[in-house]
Amino acid sequence: MQYLKSVLPALLLAGTIVDATTYTRSATVNSSFGYDATSFYLHGEAFQMLGGQMDPQRIPREYWSDRLLKAKAMGLNTIFSYIYWNELETAPGQWDWNRISGMNDIGAWYQEIQNAGLQAVLRPGPYVCGERDWGGFPAWLSQVPNITVRTNNPQFLMLSEYYLGNLSQHVQQYQVTKGGPILMAQVENEYGSFSNDHDYTAALSAIIAKHFDIVQYTNDGGSTPPNIVNGAVPGILGEIDGDPYAGFTNLEKYAESSSRGPKLDGEYYINWLTTWGPNATYPYVSGIGYNDSQNIAGLKYILDQGGSFSIYMFHGGTNFAFGNGGLNFGQLEPVTSSYDYAAPLNESGRPRDIYWQLRDFLLPYQNGSLPEYPETKPMLETEDIVLKPVAGMFNDLPPATFSGWPLSMEQLGQGRGYTLYRYTTPSSHTGLLKVGDGPRDRVIVYVNDTMKGVIDNVYVYPQNISLSLHAGDVLSLLVENQGRVDFSTPLYDQRKGIVGDVYIGTAMLAPWSMYALPIPSPPANLNFSLTNTSLTISNTSSPTWYTGSFSLPSSICGTAAADTYLTINGGTKGVLYVNGYNLGRYWSVGPQQSQYVPGVWLRESNEIVVLELEPRGKQELVARGSGERAWFNRTPSSSTDTSLQYCASRGCCYVMRLLNTTTLQFAEYYNQDTPEYAILSHRWLDGQEVSYIDYCLCVDQAQHGEKLPEYLRDKANTIRSRSGFTKILDFCKAVRLADLEWGWIDTCCIDKSSSAELTEAINSMWSWYKESVLCLVYFNDVESEASYAEIGSSAWFTRGWTLQELLAPSRLNFFDRVWKPLYRLEKATFKAKKRTATMYYIMDDPDWAEFGHMLAQASHVPARYVCGYQSLDSASAAMKLSWASFRRTSRVEDRAYSLLGLLGINMPLLYGEGQQAFIRLQKEFIQTYDDESILAWRSPCPSPNLSSHCFSGVLATNLEFFQASGDIVTIMQYGKPPWQTINQLLQVEAAVYVQSANEAPTTTILLPLACKHSDERGCLHLELTASSSAGAGVGHYMRVSACKLIAAGPQRKVTDDRRLLLHLNAR
């Protein structure tokens, strides 16, 4: 890191950071490329971008021309491309413009685009997301002192400019202003989904303007309005990605005037990415690929609006070597080596059906004429290729680094691959192994080179390993970096290896020997011609190198005719190399089961090398080349995309797993194709419910019987004996009696072993209940002929999740513990804000009003909302939270997560965050809505003496604080600036009141809220005082008392308008 000590100060002294305030850009029509309010113009002619995404650093250099010609033949005229900083500046100040035979030759990429007669859009980052390692950031950034990525941080901006300046030297001549194809450059990427530091984005825009002479634009997820506001840069064209219907509407509503211009959907998704994991699937194979006709309808909508688009991806390519990124929504979800994306052009460059459909669609937009499709060679099929073990990975290690504590991968000067940590114990230790602050990412544990287990953060609850070490034993921890997070949290800290100390029981282990093993290519000293016949492979062996070879006819060597998909049969997890090229990871857990081998990298005699991390006793592995890509989905009917929450944040759609109540089999549906279904509302019983995996095992038993191992048959029989299994059968019977075929139950229709599926389901739960034809409410603790009072005392009314299950559906049937019908509720329907019907009645009981009163009293929800007389939209946030404040959940986080639908919020789940989940919920609400009643809460006072100075932030730390807010209603307000959250502050512009000296010992202010108690005339106020932690911070305030809300009296006088920064949390 000597570079960090010498070059960075030099950059600072040279004044390379551009003052953002000195740069503004007006986008006008000019002689090369520009735009007005509705159109782009290229050389003075109106121009619609018919775009598609392809990234050169994912495609072999030799195939660039082929892929571009196929893009043009489909009807595209513009290529959008990410540029990955981390592939170019592999170490501080060390640039590689020729990685993997020229894939980093960015200038040559734009020359090829120009040769093909296409236009281009540059997406340089420095953050690109793109499912690449750390979103394109170099790993060594984490070692820069005091750096924070994606912020207005001097060190980060300095290094970003150094990167962008170097990049500009390679592509400057290809800008449209210099006769080249590059029309625009994107500022950052989807920054509005991350934060709202406008100083940062303005500074970055200024840096881009310094080095590039083309139009700039921003690109943010358009389905969520705050994304557009947060990501905007004044004077820079603002665009969206994802759903164009919502995105274009929100762009018109929320984009500021200086950022408005022609519409562009910068990432129009026609399919989705794939991640590794036990529950991940490849959507195209599993039948949940996006609907092709709807994809084309969306493109037509864009073009009919006069807009432009970029299909993401047109051709995805491959995350060669270890270039993949990952997602994290409670567990790591590493992206597969294949970035096939189910795109129109597959990973090998062959067209799918959607390619031809898009070609037919785009033909009229290209004046009825398109180039012929280039010839495509059939792919290579090979015979079995036997791979034999050559050496153990630990047999020939590089020089060690020694330290009194574990060093992270980055501290060792390493970015990717593996790091081996070794400790020799001087005495005995027994207990649970704790590796730093947790696995980063996959830790294989060995004692004296014998494998003891694996700790992997792709699982919500990684394996616990207990060890007994004796004096002289060697503990080895092989840590694999499976891909740094590129989207989701935590983006700031993406160090790999071991971060923190290692313990066995309470004993901290030290010192350590550490070995950096990046292995971008196989070790040079491996003997490929011989196999080690003396090497014995056991179930607990350490990682092992295997080799094999195969030959090809000279006529196809180095051409696309030699393209193949290579599958490693018998392998568990490892890395595949062919002729020294690192093709990426394989992993039997799926869904990817074969690696793309570009034919241009093959010759007459070819060498295969495999690093198998878990040999599992295999004395040989078998490779085989095929023309068809092999995918493996864990459950044949499963369609769970492990990146669904990521997909949600970028405007994509979901699937719903329904249970056929006759066949008792699952099926998956997109929202638009979902049949009519009934849904169950019930209370969970500990140890009795049947999970998705439990239910699948019972189905397997029914289908395969004696073919299952005895222990699985026994387990299935135990599951069938649970009351939860009987409940499923009784529910199905009740659904059939209601003349419905499909049902949904939260216990077995969600695979909760996948945190991403659980997140997607919880964020979709409200809409699933709302869109159901019938909700069956099962009271397991209510006897037949129970009185209203007995029904109202059911524990069902005390549970957090059942609130939305009561309010969302339009029809509910209530059942007692033996599934005898009790009552039926059909809510009022609304049209044009007018109630047209009141269909609220009770079977066998004409006194429906008494039942309605019981429902309202037991649920703490006014009857007008329970019965549907009044729209839930009219209820304030404070009122809704008061209803929930009387309920409990088993996990504290679920008190917040169960309110997502009721409040209209979508956010990731982070189990383990405790009460912080409720804080996050309030923050998300403030960023999305202007309902100020979210601040109208009161906490119980610790004592009368503390009530006047119980300082707090403006957000409630506990849901119970809303119990007295059930009568709070909102007040209409006009022309009031929207509130914004800035880190841990809430920015408010408002007229405030000042307390007179005789009213308070120190000057405080009263902030009026646009809400009031329903029986009062005046609005409520928060009493605020300047924060002692504000530093220079004039305008920083906290609540004086969390115990009270104030109604303004006539003696208080209004001041001038003020800008306030309110602390969200107590300091």
UniProtKB/TrEMBL annotation:
One of the GO biological process terms: carbohydrate metabolic process
E.C. number(s) listed in UniProt: 3.2.1.23
Top-level lineage group: Eukaryota
Catalytic activity: Hydrolysis of terminal non-reducing beta-D-galactose residues in beta-D-galactosides
TM segment ranges: none
Pfam annotation, one family: HET
Domain named Beta-galactosidase galactose-binding: residues: 543-605
Heterokaryon incompatibility domain boundaries: 677-785
GO molecular function: beta-galactosidase activity
Boundaries of every Beta-galactosidase 1-like first all-beta domain copy: 406-517
Residue ranges constituting the Glycoside hydrolase 35 catalytic domain according to the UniProt record: 39-361
Signal peptide feature range: 1-20
Keywords from the named record: Glycosidase, Hydrolase, Signal
Official protein name in the record: Beta-galactosidase
